[in-house]
Design a protein that fits this description.
This protein has 325 residues and is an alpha/beta fold. The chain has eleven helices and ten strands.
Length: 325
Amino acid sequence: MNTYRPAWWLPGAHLQTLWGKFGRRQARRATRIERIDTPDGDFLDLHHTDAPENAPLLVLLHGLEGSIGSHYVQALLSEASRRAWHATVLIFRSCGAELNRARRFYHSGETSDLDLALEHLLGANPSSNIVLAGVSLGGNVLLKYLGEKGSAVSKRIKGAAAVSVPFDLSRAARHIDLGFSRVYRRSFIRSLRRKAVAKLESFPDLASRSSIDAATTMVEFDNSFTAPVHGFRDADEYYEKSSSIRWLERIRINTLLLNAVDDPFLPRQVLDDVRAIARHNPALTLEFPAGGGHVGFVSGRNPLRPVYYLEERVGQFLASQLQLD
């Protein structure tokens, strides 16, 4: 049962959204970095924390322009440690300490790197069952992967949780152009443009520098860079083929979907569509509280003692799936 109640001292979606980045204080957990090679001559960085040999393994996917330092990544690593689980964070291409080598980056529908990482982790941890969690863009990637795999998902993967997912990328990309949400959009565009320009130094034919410089919205950036670099005709084709909402009906492992209705990155009508799909898929557990913002879900009566529902609920749900084994 959903027991989340938004903190009274963080009223509204935007304060909930911004608190984790600007208000939360938490120690950064030490990780062991492993680099694995990809078939196209690139690399993936995996950040590991360790636990007893037979402990479960939590595999975590971060959001758009996230990193090992993202507040929700650190929170979920702490939750894994509290439960004596191993944890691994897959760092998407270009989101680590150095730019990746290949012509491509990462994007919201790219699942081959997750598939490669999971195959590696299943082999490297033969005595551990695995649970998965994805946040924002990482949640979209996770759900699309699970839908693509369907019943072919490894039997050692026991459950999944996806938080603040932008299920419909087209509607999400346009929604972030509205009102205060444009603040988030500008931050993303600055970071993405910086990486795209750096990539052009190695691959000057990759995209148009003038189009990248001129992009001020997510749709414009995806039209000028994300789509052509990754083989899509335009942003609309990229959104259509990469949106996880198209794959939800095919998911066959128990999966928690935790999204706030007031998420400033997503129109609430999308969640109505997700509810309609989930009614026909018993593998999906939906929690769509009215408040919580984007990757917020802060509660607690005392501002000096905030309660963070996100990691608590994800940990509880995934632990319940491990107990079903």
